[in-house]
């Protein structure tokens, strides 16, 4: 699980914008790397930034998707199909290439050109179907009915959560003491379920989980309040990777069994956090990740009284330098 020679060798660019893993590399070694925990302060708060934006596929998603794809490859699957044009699709393309398994990514028409280029550069087949993600997803599910084909979901699969849990196991080795709280962004809740699994594994029962959602697409908070999955009709946020209509149903019980506090942040707070992370730490992340960091920079009430927190810098590559410059301008104008 260390930054092994074989993973280091993966850093041979075969296009201007994409680092690619070696084709058919060691099928059993984890596809993700151990990421650094950067210690910093925000005001009086001691903050550990868990830099999962540094994963070779540029987000935490490679942890779970890598494990799930390895599982399917080991049982002889000959194609992976997924329906995300964002970080999940990129991670599946990356894993498929590393495992020597062909990948089809079904995208909706709204997918930005630069993501199409990056996913294709990994050798994945792209199919553009439908105006919105739901339509692309129906096509992907149909394609996955073919023989020897596995559908790779973006967040709702227990093996994904097992893979994401490795993030907390790394933290247990990197932190001298358990943090008072962990900040985590929530879309469908795969990352959150993985963090909760990880906290159980390392025995950090007293670490509170601050589960952050954008105001315009908060589905965890109402679902926990009502004790059932609440479906959003039209989730809307600049944090597009968090715009999910329905959370993973397993979250309801998992959150009850742990100390999970749902929080919401505005899009402006999320983009401000993206600019701050770029300026202060030289890391470029998308608003989905900015949402998780936003409570730090917005001096959020949920952090009062805490001394030491870890923020999951979950990463995300659906962002451009132009976006960051625009958000910086908006911040200065405000
Ligand atoms: C997918 C994703 C999330 C949300 O993860 P879920 O498992 O859907 O909750 C957050 N940030 C980034 C960058 C992502 O790609």
Beta-strand percent range: 15-25%
Structural class: alpha/beta
Number of strands: 12
Instruction: Return the CATH architecture of the largest domain.
Output: 3-Layer(aba) Sandwich
CATH class of the largest domain: Alpha Beta
Query: In what order do the strands lie side by side in the largest sheet?
Result: 3-4-12-9-10-11
Helical content class: 25-40%
Number of H/I helices: 13
What name is given to the CATH topology of the largest domain?
A: Rossmann fold
The overall average pLDDT, rounded, is 92
Structure description:
By secondary structure, this protein is an alpha/beta fold. It folds into 2 domains: 7-60 and 159-333, Rossmann fold, CATH 3.40.50.1100; 61-156, Rossmann fold (3-Layer(aba) Sandwich). The protein contains 13 helices and 12 strands. The protein has helices at residues 5-8, 61-74, 87-99, 113-121, 133-143, 158-164, 166-174, 190-202, 220-226, 250-256, 267-281, 287-297, 321-333, and strands at 12-13, 19-20, 37-42, 45-51, 79-82, 103-107, 125-128, 149-151, 181-185, 208-214, 260-265, 308-313. Strands 3-4-12-9-10-11 form a 6-stranded mixed beta sheet, with helices on both faces. A hairpin with a 5-residue loop joins strand 1 (12-13) and strand 2 (19-20). Helix 2 (61-74) packs across helix 6 (158-164) and helix 11 packs across helix 13 (321-333). The longest helix is centred in the C-terminal third of the chain and has 15 residues, at 267-281. It is globular. The relative contact order is 0.14. Residues 1-17 have low confidence and may be disordered. The structure holds pyridoxal-5'-phosphate (PLP). Pyridoxal-5'-phosphate (PLP) is lined by residues 59, 61, 87, 155, 185-192, 241-242, 286, 288-289, 314-316. Pyridoxal-5'-phosphate (PLP) binds at residues 59, 61, 87, 155, 185-192, 241-242, 286, 288-289, 314-316.
